[in-house]
Amino acid sequence: MPASNRQFRSTGGSSAPRPDAIIVGAGVIGLGVAWRLAQSGARVTVFDRSAAGSGASHAAAGMLAICAEAEPGEQDLVALGRLSQSLWPTFAADLEAASGFAVDRRAEGTLVVAMNAGEAARIHHHLTFQKSLALPVEWISAQEARQREPHLTPGIVGAVWSPEDHQVDNRKLAAALKIAASKAGAIIREHQPVRRIVVEHDRAVGVALDDRVAICADVVVLAAGAWSRGIEGLPTDLRPPVRPVKGQMLALQMDPLAPLVTRVLRAHNVYLVPRNDGRLIVGATAEEKGFDATLTAGGVLALLDAAWRLVPSLEELPIADMWVGHRPGSRDDAPILGPGPVEGLVYATGHHRNGILLTPVTADMIARLVLDGVADPRMAAFSLDRFMTARAAE
Description:
By secondary structure, this protein is of the alpha/beta class. The protein has helices at 28-39, 56-59, 75-99, 117-132, 142-148, 170-183, 297-310, 359-372, 385-393; strands at residues 20-24, 43-47, 63-64, 110-114, 138-141, 158-162, 166-167, 187-189, 194-200, 203-209, 214-216, 219-222, 243-253, 264-267, 270-274, 279-283, 319-329, 336-339, 345-349. An 8-stranded mixed beta sheet has the order 5-6-4-14-15-16-13-17. Strands 8-2-1-12-19-18 form a 6-stranded mixed beta sheet. Strands 9-10-11 form a 3-stranded antiparallel beta sheet, with no helix packed on it. Helix 1 packs parallel to helix 6, helix 3 (75-99) crosses helix 6 and helix 3 (75-99) packs across helix 8 (359-372). It is globular and about 65 Å long.
């Protein structure tokens, strides 16, 4: 049965007891779902192989960007991203109130800079598609771009101005979600990896840990990011086709009272994201190297060279940090959301570069599915079925 028509059975409902839910993965997606479920009275336990928020959620840049990144073939993803963008102001305010912890959401918008005529032509090609979707983006002159960001290199051709592509501090987001979920009653068990999803009679009934301890639940939510496919217990074709996409990143230290960059800047092969504390995030490579966590001279050099070409005066800034993360990329780089053929199992993984952006909408949709058994029709395009159908046609 297609996921768009499949009804997910839940023990929730307005008059029914709230379900016992296990969430596999304590990144922002798993923690967001845990918070929403616990708020509604569900009994929630979250397991993670390491510290909560330490994977892709820690490594990300925190861009809430879908307009400037929209490409042909991503119409469903753009619609989901725009919905999540609209949820972010209230989500951030609610989370800060619940946790007592600021997430530093910033709303200065994004500039996508064309460094030469070739890049301008490529950007204009994407801009035509973006405008066909009525996205709020516009081409501005080099002079206008440098009025917004005076430290941009003088040789730029122009830029796309995307006023609704914002940012949040992803590390503060993860910390706030952990606090809020815990305060709401969720139990977060760090450094306790799930080895296997326990399935009996085609229904997920709990999980088994690496120490072979089994814990029962009414619902299991698989939100383990790049590690989702490696969890045992499911037939091969029901394991989400998610792989790690390595990204090298670094942070430079600006003067927080006089920052060189004041909004998100994007150019070919680089983005710059300023933080309230003066850090300037520079990212990111995209490498198909599995879980390799090596920082390389070539990767760091490429990022610094691209950043320097965009904002030459940053060459004097000290390097504050460097790190590697692993994006959870599906075969089409879109998330895998909702129920699958195994009853009691819900997928919330494969968000690739959009995990921070899609945290509010994923948390709300998955929590509603678990609690009320209702799969939001807007999740249908992101079900596991799309990969199973493609395999069957091969």
